[in-house]
Amino acid sequence: MNNKCDGLINPLFSITPEVRKALEIGEPVVALESTLISHGLPWPENFQIGQDLEKIVRDNGAIPATIAIIDGMIHIGLTLQQLEELAKLGEKVWKVSRRDIALVLSTKRMGATTVAATALLASKCGIHLFATGGVGGVHRDGHNTMDVSADLTELGRTQIAVVSAGIKSILDIGRTLEFLETQGVTVVGYGTDDYPSFFTEKSDFKAPCRLDTPLQCADLMYHNIALHLQSGVLISVPIPKEAATDGKEVEEAIQKALLETNEKNITGRDITPYILKRVAQLTQGKSLSANLSLIKNNAKVASLIAVELSRIIRNKSH
Question: How much is the pTM?
């Protein structure tokens, strides 16, 4: 298997020497998104979590690659200065999905990549693992509004394993799982038969399949790559027990926030950030604390899988 993808030779990509070397010699690399930093948390907590996630990846044997668009270049791996600038600018930074990549590059804006954009750009560089908090999905009224996250279609056409705490619980988890099935995405419950619900360990849905170890997940991803399926794998990790919030309290807060989005006519890409912030307020910060805990846990799991996948690929090539 050859990791030399077009991102390594494309002049629009700026890859840090550390990440480039790791990709060229087959060391484990884990992609990290940047909208968590720009839009997910306020300064200075966002700068701190950006550093914390990179440290967790390193501590578990992999190389972190935080992805963003800066000065007309796609950056795979950020310097501390770039990370700080992204964090300080916050929501002034363009939120970049697949559709926005060329626009933000051509206009030389600073862009923070969503799950969809991060998955796409990481895959173009041969990065096979991506850690995030939760993926987008079908909104609760999505069957009427057609509001469906680009994360889902990206997972259906991009060869990468995304490690998340499942689908954001502010969404319609059932319809999202159905949509992922239609897109041909393998959805895994990591160590669980019950599909996780972001802030809580369980939803009302069963996981399509269950894998229990990093090695099993890495073996699945190896076969996905070897078959050139060109579709993704969603590895859904329950939030750590000690961080799980009371499901009923969170659900009540979500319902209140959803009503407010209708009253204030909040639509499109602004819905999810508004709801997450409002739920954090309504739960007195409990949901925010849980969010940070699950993201850190996902980074650890993704790193362990990346290490095993690197070992499998190395052994198979000999």
Answer: 0.93
